[in-house]
Specification:
There is one protein chain. By secondary structure, the protein is of the alpha/beta class. It folds into two domains: about 50 residues, no CATH class; about 260 residues, Aldolase class I (TIM Barrel, Alpha-Beta Barrel), CATH 3.20.20. The chain has twelve helices and twelve strands. It has a ten-stranded mixed beta sheet with strand order 1-2-3-4-7-8-9-10-11-12. Strands 5-6 form a two-stranded antiparallel ribbon. A hairpin with a 5-residue loop joins strand 2 and strand 3. Helix 5 packs parallel to helix 6 and helix 7 packs parallel to helix 9. The longest helix has 15 residues. The protein starts with a helix and ends with a helix. The structure holds S-adenosyl-L-homocysteine (SAH). The site of S-adenosyl-L-homocysteine has 16 residues, from strand 8 and strand 10.
Length: about 325
């Protein structure tokens, strides 16, 4: 729902009306019609003038493990994907996109190969959340879908302010970044206790630059300094994501190096099995991942291995890149 359009449409109404609408929407109302404490005429006017969602659902896929992936189009035909993950302990975690496509070109990532579209508006990000909220209550969220959230941080933070109304506290909200230093600094200054995750993927500068060209812009050292400042200020540990690429970043010496670089007081390391996309890489085998983990532990750094969810519907990490053709209007722009 375009919240600005909602405000301007309700300009001649008492101020509490917009809040009333948002309360219903944030609690999973299926339509304006469900908002029974609004006058019927006003509901009709809203249905006419303010589309219930800024996104159109194009496709929804359900994986055998309960994961749901939704593909949407924005009004101007941009593709947006979001995922709902359901865990046995009751956690319901949403992974949202902050951009359509991504301007960065991480060599292993499917989204990085798509043509960059644009930043999503705050309403377009929220509508991904509300879509899943209409299915069931949700309680965790990560900005780990398409795009680099730190390059769209105004809108991302605006969304974060509203998430508690939907049932997702700031402590259960995480922003994942390639290491966009100005964004990390802004998050450090923010009053919201949001979690920070860093996609590191290499234990040293040269290899990181090869895998993630953005490392040429913000070096690994600068990025880790910014993460440490985040930890000092917030006293919240930083999550490190490390995608396991066979023969590239999964060797014994690389584990040793990584354990030297990452202070276990500050960082929690998450090893991510690589989800095959159309790339030059193969994922490390189960055994290679276990050996890497053992080598880390031998050198004082513990790590967890991320559970892969929704692989059978291309909903796993790094697989978000819409496969349906774009409408002609968006493809040509
Ligand atoms: N741009 C941000 C947000 C995207 S998060 C970032 O990079 O952190 C997506 C996460 O999935 C990142 O950690 C990314 O490195 C990882 N990823 C990308 N492609 C992947 C793949 N094919 N398999 C597993 N993880 C992947």
């Amino acid at each position: 729902m375009d919240l600005q359009l909602l405000d301007s449409t309700l300009a001649d109404q008492p101020a509490f009306r917009a809040r009333q609408v948002w309360r219903w929407a944030s609690q999973g109302a299926q339509s304006y019609d469900a908002m029974t404490d609004l006058p019927a005429a006003l509901r009709a006017k809203l249905a006419e003038e303010v589309p219930f969602s800024t996104l159109e659902l194009v496709r929804e896929a359900h994986a055998s493990d309960g994961t749901v992936k939704a593909l949407f189009h924005t009004k101007d035909g941009r593709a947006v994907e979001a995922v709902l993950m359901r865990y046995k302990d009751g956690r319901r975690s949403i992974c949202v996109s902050s951009q359509s496509g991504c301007p960065l070109t991480c060599t292993f990532c499917a989204t990085g190969k798509m043509k960059f579209g644009r930043n999503l508006t705050a309403s377009e990000i929220l509508d991904q959340v509300l879509h899943f909220r209409r299915i069931e209550p949700v309680n965790h969220l990560v900005f780990m879908g398409m795009g680099e959230p730190m390059m769209n941080l105004d809108n991302v933070l605006e969304v974060c302010r509203k998430l508690p109304d939907v049932g997702i506290t700031h402590r259960r909200t995480g922003i994942s970044t390639v290491g966009w230093v100005p964004g990390i600094k802004r998050l450090t200054e923010s009053d919201m206790p949001i979690r920070l995750a860093l996609s590191l993927h290499a234990p040293e500068e040269d290899l990181r630059s090869q895998i993630m060209p953005v490392n040429e812009r913000y070096s690994m050292q600068e990025v880790l300094d910014a993460c440490e400042a985040f930890y000092e200020k917030k006293r919240r540990m930083v999550f490190i994501e490390y995608v396991m690429l066979a023969g590239v970043n999964d060797g014994y010496a690389q584990a040793v190096k990584l354990a030297q670089v990452l202070d276990p007081k500050i960082y929690k390391l998450n090893l991510i099995p690589y989800n095959p996309t159309d790339s030059i890489y193969d994922g490390s085998s189960r055994n290679a991942i276990e050996a890497f983990k053992a080598a880390l532990e031998e050198h004082g750094l513990s790590a967890t291995v991320r559970l892969t969810r929704g692989r059978d519907i291309d909903a796993a990490c790094g697989q978000l890149a819409a496969k349906t053709p774009m409408p002609a209007s968006a493809a040509s722009s």
